């Protein structure tokens, strides 16, 4: 697994951002997470070692991109064209990023984008029904070859059947996850199962990737350490791969 954070920092745009892990981590170091800036790793995809080999090599997994910001943040508008160019220059790498700003997709988009670069996977996150109904009608109409939906932090039961019915052939996966941190809001197992059932109806792959810190199941709330949240989600055995 590789990470590439070309810029760092973000501004909160919805209730899903309330307990953002970037803000929490930056606060520990006395930094202001709302200040968006380029990082020293900005040009990581095209950096080479002394043997003129790329430092970032394929490893069978994605290059998880911009996970300490939003790729479509307005502060990064001037930097985004260069980031796109680096992705194009490395077709052997699969870049994967999550956004809360699908409405800004076309700003700085490369002229040769067409229906999308084959090595770019874009995920839209929708934490509740309101943001689902706001973001998905925009996101699912965008020219992107690889699209996924994620409910994280999942804050309530979410109805996506109308979107699955219309776009199931384009949606490669739906994922759910709870919120981390001791101030995390509750994620209910029933919400997870409800989304999984919807995905099964339209044969769309489903993945439950983490419980979050406060996880409710059978009327009881469990406090799950960060290191155990992925493992406990996996143990639930509710992933679906048609």
Describe this entry's structure for a reader.
By secondary structure, this protein is of the alpha/beta class. 25% of the residues lie in helices and 20% in strands. It contains 6 helices and 12 strands. It has helices at 21-28, 80-89, 129-139, 161-167, 189-201, 226-236, and strands at residues 2-4, 7-8, 37-38, 63-65, 95-99, 120-125, 146-151, 171-177, 187-188, 206-210, 214-217, 220-223. The strands form 3 sheets. A 7-stranded parallel β-sheet has the order 1-4-5-6-7-8-10. Strands 9-11-12 form a 3-stranded mixed β-sheet. Strands 2-3 form a two-stranded antiparallel sheet. The protein is globular. The two termini are 25 Å apart.
Quick synopsis:
This protein is α/β, with parallel strands linked by helices and about 240 residues long. Helices cover about 25% and strands about 20% of the residues. Strand 4, helix 2 and strand 5 (about 95-100) form a beta-alpha-beta unit.
